[in-house]
Every structure is written in C-alpha cells, then in structure tokens.
Write a structure and sequence with these properties.
The protein is mostly helical. The chain is built from 17 helices and 2 strands. The protein has 2 domains: about 1-210, no CATH class; about 220-280, no CATH class. Helix content is about 50%, strand content about 0%. It has a two-stranded antiparallel sheet.
Length: about 290
C-alpha cells in the first residue's frame, strides 16, 4: 500500500504532462503552494514547490529575510506527521525505495561510520540551506540556493534530466555544474542498491528538519510493554537499522510501518491506529483479539 501511495502522490504532484513534452516549467497559480516532500520546483510537471527550495529562495533574496509561510508550513507538517512525509509522500524517497527492491548480492543495514554520517544532513540543513544563502551574497546582496544548486539529486533527476531531454537549447548550455550534480545523483542511486535510502539517511535537510519533530508529532509509534515479547522482529524488519524496542520515534524513522507490521503481538502501533480504534470501538489493527 505504501508504494501505491508514494506513486500516486508523485504522479499527482507532478501531473503537468505538457511541461514534460515541451521542456518547460509549469508556472501556474498552484506553484505558490508548498508540497510536503522534496518535490523540485523546476520539474517540468511539478504543480507545487519544494519547501527547501522555497525557503532558500527567500533567504537568498535581497528583498526578504524570512518566509513565515514556508516556516509555518514546515512546522505544521512536522508537528502533525514528522518524517511520515519521508516514508509515504516524498518522490525521491520512492525512487530510492524502488531501487533498493532490485536484487543485489549483498544488502547492508549500516555502512562504516554510519552514526557519524547521519549527522551530515543536519550540517546540510544549517550550512547549505540556511547560512550560505543568508551570508554568502554577491555585490547586489543576492545569495545562491546552495543546496538546490550544488547538491540536490532530486532536482537533477526530476528537473535537470527531463528539461535537458526535451529542450535542445538547454542541452547545449549544460556545463560542469550539471556534470557535478549528475555524479552525486549516480552515487546516490548506486548506493540505493546496497542500503536503504542513503540520501534520506545522510544528506536530506528536509528529513533532518522533520526528524526534529518525530518524538512530539501527532503521528508517533507507541510500544505497549505489557504486550511486547521482545522477539526483535520489529528491529529485523527495519531496513534503516533503528533500535525500535528502545527508540520507536527516532529522528531517523521515516514511519514506513515495516516494524509495526512485523510485530506478532500488536504491541507496536501508531497514535493514528489508537485514535481510529477509539472512534470505531474496534481493536487496534494488528493486535490479536482477546477471547471472551
């Protein structure tokens, strides 16, 4: 079901087919609306905007210094869902998930220095998304959207490649910057064969921002100790290697639900499951019914 939701949201949010055919970016009224995932503004079919790109556009502007709309949007989405967005709604998350499903001789849950590399996405958020656009400005007072321009592989895949494919003039203008970002994209896609979601783990500033809110968001995972038999199946099912038994709402958790589905006793469920059960008067999905 999750893959279907991801695919449907990606198709709907990038549904301007004329843009793909003509190699032009959609600029209609919905482009002023932020989408929750890493959905590139420059994608020819994109009907909305990436919140990271929107934030950088404001921070690097000489006219504005802060966007209350973008910050409010990020805080509202994070407070409601946390990194649920990463697991269910982000188009580039879908790409990584599909590649990870491809058979490969050896899949690994963690690479060397994993615990340190995971902190790099917070560096991306602080330095490339906020500080450099604010303070690395030219003589006119304009900055660059550093993350979008120099790093973001989602933009290369969803915007750069389709635009170049459909627009001859852009192909002739592509230079070292596009080549550099293509190398980053190729590396991320290859790593996605080996490990689950390398970009989300190590580089994504949007995931870092939503991750801050995982423990306090409305959508959280709950472990009922009285039902837990400590079999470890939840941790075995987690491709991100999260210690589910001790840290159900880790900042790294993308809310994919694999751990919850693997629990044989229904000890692990979400706040949404609990709310649904309370409203309908039924049991929590996945929990064995009690005998009478």
């Amino acid at each position: 079901m999750r893959t279907g939701v991801q695919a449907a949201f990606t198709a709907l949010s990038n549904g301007y087919l004329t843009g793909f055919l003509q190699g032009k970016i959609y600029t209609g009224p919905t482009k002023a609306v932020c989408l929750p995932g890493l959905n590139c503004y420059s994608c020819p079919g994109a009907l909305g905007s990436c919140p990271i790109g929107s934030l950088q556009a404001v921070l690097s502007s000489r006219q504005f210094s802060v966007s209350f709309y973008v910050l409010g949007f990020l805080m509202a989405v994070g407070a409601l869902w946390g990194r649920f967005v990463c697991g269910w709604l982000c188009p580039f998350g879908l790409v990584q998930d599909l590649i990870y499903k491809i058979p490969f001789p050896k899949k690994v849950k963690k690479i060397p220095a994993d615990r340190y590399l995971k902190g790099f996405k917070y560096v991306m958020l602080a330095v490339f998304v906020i500080l450099l656009p604010l303070f690395a400005v030219d003589i006119t007072g304009m900055g660059d959207p550093w993350f979008c321009k120099y790093v973001c592989p989602s933009g290369t895949l969803m915007a750069g490649l389709p635009l170049l494919a459909a627009n001859v003039a852009l192909r002739s203008a592509a230079g070292w910057l596009f080549a550099w970002k293509s190398v980053i994209l190729a590396a991320i896609l290859f790593l996605s064969l080996l490990i689950c979601r390398p970009f989300c783990r190590y580089l994504c500033p949007l995931g870092a921002l939503y991750g801050f809110m995982n423990k306090a968001s409305f959508y959280r995972l709950v472990l009922e100790e009285d039902l837990c038999i400590h079999c470890g199946k939840c941790e075995e099912a987690c491709d991100l290697g999260i210690p589910v038994l001790t840290n159900q709402n880790s900042m790294e958790c993308i809310r994919c639900g694999d751990c919850k589905n693997a629990c044989p006793t229904g000890a692990l469920h979400s706040t949404l499951d609990r709310l649904s059960a309370h409203k309908t008067g039924t049991g929590i999905p996945g929990r064995p019914s009690s005998s009478k």
